[in-house]
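Notes from the 1:1 (GR / supervisor)

We went over the backlog. Supervisor wanted to see one worked example end to end before approving the batch request, so GR pasted a single chain during the call. The sequence is below; no edits were made to it. Supervisor asked that the structure be written out right there so they could see what the output format looks like.
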Amino acid sequence: MLTGKIMTALPTHEGISQQYPPCLHYPPLIRRLLDWIIAQPLSTLSPGRYTLPFLPEKQAWFVILHYDTTDASLQKPEIHTHFCDLQIVLSGQERMAWCLDEGQFVPDGEYLPERDILYYQAKSDELNLFIAKPGAFYFFPPSFIHATNIQVTKPESVKKLVVKLHYSLFEEVS
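Structure output shown during the call:
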């Protein structure tokens, strides 16, 4: 899992824009995507699916979600085979959980190729938990189990942006 702060540009040092000062080693695709996201009027977007103008629409898109968080017992951990998730909480906060898939959990149903998703029977509290807040991003590549939409202390309204990126895009972008 990769995580970091989303910042507007900081003062330039030696001619290099330092939007992500400790994170200049992010993959170029992530840096480009974060630059694009920062420039968007995200607060004006309604829930739904949107294209990314600089990437093939079958390999990359984003959704705006608006929901109420729920108890961890109601959230099944999931994993993807071909797509990465880059998640950004826009308002509210939620608990997220993650771990590397090492075959330790029993699948809960079949893999759904049309959604590129497999759910596990594991409980979210069997994973590494953290609180996701606005101003940061959370990146879950394939092979990372994750659970989201979990309440921190009580149900809370959350607005979130989730970018879906096919893993092959990281091979093509330099």
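Supervisor's comment: The two ends are 21 Å apart (CA to CA).
Batch request approved.
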